[in-house]
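Bench notes, afternoon.
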Amino acid sequence: MAALIDYIKESYGELRSNVSWTPRAEAQRLTIVVVVFTVLFSLAIWGVDYVFSGVVSRYFELVKK
C-alpha cells in the first residue's frame, strides 16, 4: 500500500513540476475544434448509415418478390 501512495505522490509532483501545460485559451479553442469535428463526423456516419440502410432494405424487398 505504501508503494501505491508513493507512486501517487511522485506522479502528482511530476505533473506539477515537469509537465508543460497548454494555455487555457488554446485548450478551450482546441476543445471546440474537436467537438465540432466530432459532431460533423457523426452526422456524416449517420448519413452514410441511413443511405446504406435504405439501399439494403430496397434490395431485400426486390429479392423477396
